[in-house]
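About this split. The held-out portion is used to measure sequence recovery: a designer receives only the structure tokens and must propose an amino acid at every position. Recovery is the fraction of positions where the proposal matches the reference. Here is one held-out target exactly as it appears in the evaluation file.
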């Protein structure tokens, strides 16, 4: 399927989500997939809030892109930060780079810098949207278009679930969508600077995330699988 056809189908799906689940928000980390969704939302003036979680450890390129997105699209980006006291206590007790020492400490850092702010970002929403794709690696091969997020008690939509790498980059290049220049330097997946590195050609897309851990641990808690109750919905159910 061409990316143009995928784009039209995804736009129809976004319209349907807005109609049935407002208020709804896109969780963006300014990765390539998030930029495709942001472009679709902005071009079509869809009433979808865009938020991001500023962990305080993001690469400079991501902060620069955040500003570029604001200017390019005129979109207000909601930015959520970690709880200052929890972060201060963690750094006091374990040090600034404790995530390298154990998976437990790494997950605690992600919980403070990402998971707790996500809960605040989702408060008052009736659904959230992500750029997750099945092709993004071993931890994401069983995701569905619509899932139930039991932590926040919300439907979670992954409209790009079936998009390939070629679909994403075809869209970005054809529509001249701004993107993170780290993608051109071997970073298919971009998170916090100390926990992300470039991958070799042919490596798993998420091989550069928490590279010191085994593959099944490579989630930060925002999208940990399996969700307790996955709701499988045929795509046709969501199309007009
Ligand atoms: S990705 Fe690394 S720095 Fe970022 S929140 Fe998780 S452990 Fe902390």
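Reference sequence for scoring:
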């Amino acid at each position: 399927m061409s990316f143009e056809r995928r784009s039209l189908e995804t736009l129809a799906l976004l319209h349907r989500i807005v109609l049935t689940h407002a208020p709804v928000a896109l969780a963006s980390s300014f990765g390539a997939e998030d930029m495709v969704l942001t472009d679709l939302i902005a071009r079509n003036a869809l009433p979808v809030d865009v938020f991001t979680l500023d962990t305080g450890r993001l690469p400079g390129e991501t902060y620069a892109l955040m500003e570029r997105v604001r200017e390019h699209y005129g979109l207000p980006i909601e930015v959520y930060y970690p709880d200052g006291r929890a972060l201060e206590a963690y750094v006091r007790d374990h040090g600034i780079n404790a995530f390298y020492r154990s998976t437990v400490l790494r997950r605690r850092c992600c919980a403070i810098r990402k998971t707790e702010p996500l809960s605040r970002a989702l408060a008052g929403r009736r659904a959230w949207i992500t750029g997750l794709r099945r092709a993004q690696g071993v931890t994401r091969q069983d995701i569905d278009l619509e899932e139930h997020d039991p932590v926040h008690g919300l439907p979670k939509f992954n409209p790009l679930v079936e998009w390939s790498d070629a679909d994403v980059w075809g869209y970005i290049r054809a529509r001249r969508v701004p993107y993170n220049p780290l993608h051109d330097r071997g970073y298919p997946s971009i998170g916090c600077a100390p926990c992300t590195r470039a991958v070799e050609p042919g490596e798993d897309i998420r091989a550069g995330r928490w590279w010191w851990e085994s593959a099944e641990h490579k989630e930060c808690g925002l999208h940990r699988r399996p969700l307790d109750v996955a709701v499988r919905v045929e795509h046709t159910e969501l199309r007009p």
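Annotator remark: The first helix runs from residue 3 to 21.
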